[in-house]
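Entry:
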Amino acid sequence: MRRLSRLFEGRPESISEARAFAWAFMVGRVPEELADQAALVVSELCTNAVEHTASGEVGGKFVLELEVFPEHVRVSVVDMGAPSEPRMSCEGADLEAVNGRGLFIVDAVSKAWGSQVLRVGRRVWADVVGVEV
């Protein structure tokens, strides 16, 4: 198992930085299809942290955690907290919608995903397998 984490500023620009960080870590460690899917999940979870939690407020931050296992990649994002748990929105079913599909995407390429409340904030994680399960 290989593991790596990094702290990012809670700004929209940090999402692409997090995706690039994840991609650089996974290259050569996992098949390209799995790296692509994990990078997509990184984008979705980091976007949710910036848009829906205190991480996106002035001075906010989030942590991206990556763990490579033989059969999957665990992507975790630790945010600074929100009043509600992450959940798939009813809007996510609308293919024309601009927002609201992130967790549907995460669900489609993960064998499992969830969240846990931490002392400060919340960790949202997904075990990415690279294909729809």
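The two ends are 22 Å apart (CA to CA).
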